[in-house]
Amino acid sequence: MRITYIGHATILIEMAGVRILTDPNFDPKLARFLPRVSAPGIPLGQLPKLDAILLTHAHADHLSFESLNALPNAIPLIAPPSVSRWLNGRGYGQAIPLAPGESWTVGGVSITAASAKHMGARYEIDRWRSAANMYLLDAAGFTCFFAGDTGLTPDSHRIVEERLGGQGRPLDMALLPIGHAPWWKPTFRDGHLTSADALALWERLGSRYFIPYHWGTFRHVTTGPYTAIRQLRAQLASHPRHADVKILEPGERFDLTRER
């Protein structure tokens, strides 16, 4: 299994001969407003042939229409049902709905959706489009969990516990977002993970490795682009499993083999 960090929540996952891209956003400015501070780790035009795209929710940083329009329109777009219907209505006939608990298979990879704790509506008035997914990828040799955006809840790890733990199988890779919770925004953790929350979820998932994302890509209104990763690095200094957290700069990759 190979994980390549492209930027923000855009990650290229390669496993069992299948290439899956998450929440593609290659925009020079987030929502045409917040500038990008680092170039995509792989330029959009240099991506390998993709087998599927995972969309977790409708927020502009996770669902960029400009990026989707620049990608081949035959690639299946896996999304929450409400988002899939919206995409179908906008002409993206390749959008496939996947509700929590449902699975879809591409090549040798099974993709199962779970519900994230995140208000994923695009705008304030479209609450019917607020669903947000997390995804568990399971191939014969490897497993990978992609959280999209979520707050930490007692059920955040449930899909891994039920799908893998019950079979005595480990989770190989946890891809988790990190963010900074400003003191004046007490509701931040209702729908997002701080770096400490991400470490806690990683431990609950029982994953061998943890790769953080959602940092170092866009300049935000509430925090700097590197605040969360600096906080994570500080916490890892005394963490007993610091060596199993793989911090990737945009363009860097991590190869996981059975020997490793």
Dominant shape: globular
State the share of residues found in helices, binned by percent: 10-25%
The CATH topology assignment is: Metallo-beta-lactamase, Chain A
What is the number of beta strands?
Answer: 15
CATH class: Alpha Beta
Please indicate the count of domains. 1
Cα distance, first to last residue? 11 Å
Low-pLDDT sequence parts:
none
Mean pLDDT: 94
- Structural category: alpha/beta
CA-based gyration radius: 17 Å
Assess the beta-strand content as a share of residues.
25-35%
Order of helices and strands: EEEEEEHEHEEEEEHEHHEHE
- Quaternary state of this entry equals single chain
What features would you describe in this structure?
The chain has one domain: Metallo-beta-lactamase, Chain A (4-Layer Sandwich). The protein is of the alpha/beta class and 260 residues long. It is 18% helix and 26% strand. It is built from six helices and 15 strands. The strands form three sheets. Strands 8-7-6-3-2-1-15 form a seven-stranded mixed β-sheet, covered by helices on one side. It has a six-stranded mixed β-sheet with strand order 9-10-11-12-13-14, covered by helices on one side. A two-stranded antiparallel sheet has the order 4-5. The mean pLDDT is 94.
Task: Please describe the structure with a list of short key phrases separated by commas or semicolons.
single chain; 260 residues; alpha/beta; Metallo-beta-lactamase, Chain A; seven-stranded mixed beta sheet; six-stranded mixed beta sheet; 6 helices; 15 strands
